[in-house]
């Protein structure tokens, strides 16, 4: 997902469940990339066993029913963020 600054989009909801309306992940590795602006962005990432929420971009992003990568703890202790 690219920078949505200047659009009317305020919330982006991604449901990666195996079936439409389902609550179980599909077992396939999921990758979601939310690109910010060309300027310095200050974002907040809040993760749990059921998904992740990102705020601070032009649109809030909510991802549900994603599969965890190998080695990722089943009960994360706090948000994990990477900035460059």
The dominant shape is globular
Radius of gyration over C-alpha positions, nearest whole angstrom: 14 Å
Low-pLDDT runs: 75-84
How are strands sequenced across the largest beta sheet?
1-4-3-2
How much strand content do the residues show? 15-25%
Number of helices: 0
Order of helices and strands: EEEE
End-to-end span in angstroms?
18 Å
Short description:
The protein is mainly beta. The chain contains no helices and 4 strands. The protein has a 4-stranded mixed beta sheet with strand order 1-4-3-2, with no helix packed on it.
Descriptive notes:
- The chain has strands at 11-15, 44-48, 51-55, 60-64.
- By secondary structure, it is mainly beta.
- The chain has a domain at 11-64.
- Strands 1-4-3-2 form a four-stranded mixed sheet, with no helix packed on it.
- The two termini are 18 Å apart.
- Mean pLDDT is 81; it is low at 75-84.
Summary tags:
single chain; about 80 residues; mainly beta; four-stranded mixed sheet; 4 strands; globular
Question: How does the SSE layout of this entry go?
Answer:
Layout: E1 11-15, E2 44-48, E3 51-55, E4 60-64
Parallel strand pairs: 1-4
Antiparallel strand pairs: 2-3, 3-4
